[in-house]
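INFO worker-7 received task bundle
INFO bundle size: 2
INFO processing item 0
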Amino acid sequence: MLRDKEVGDVVVRNLCGAKHELKITKITEDVVHCGPWRFCRTSGMEIDDDCRWGPEFGRTGSVLEQEKAKGTKQVPQEQPKTE
């Protein structure tokens, strides 16, 4: 699903019907990072180990959509702090 995306591309996060634009900040073989959020590169499912979301748990709270939708809002993305 997200194999053709690159760092800097804008994607749409669908969180219970609320759609927000996020910019891709990092890509690994299996994960797309949008600031502090992580998504499965194959399914688009949000990965959150604390909430037990992601492909390995079989559930998620949000998903990345392939195409940009009309009426989406840009969400400010803070980078995780490193110490």
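INFO item 0 finished
INFO processing item 1
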Amino acid sequence: MLNVQEQTIAGINMKYILQNNDDIQRLSYGSDPYGSVPYGSITEVFTICSWITSKGGWNAITAYDIMLLVDAYLELINLGYTVRMQDINGTIAYYLDILDSGNDFTGCSFT
């Protein structure tokens, strides 16, 4: 079952599709004011793995990053995807340098 959410960002109509409670594909429907986003194209895919990578990798996680995930889980902020409790647990494991447990919780395959 798909959970579809819509949002307008900087004049671009975006549709978020949640699949398997894991990742969100941000799809545009329509185009931005400059015409550079074609109808129906996938513009970004967000997952916990890509979020951790954007933070510098599993071994660069900080306590602040964990708190961001908690805030997103509580729906106080939006990180661009739906944060699961497993994501928080895995990120705490990465923070504690327990790579295998972090991968088990998040589903990522960091080495």
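INFO item 1 finished
INFO post-check item 1: Residues 63-73 form the longest helix (11 residues).
INFO post-check item 1: The mean pLDDT is 74.
INFO worker-7 idle
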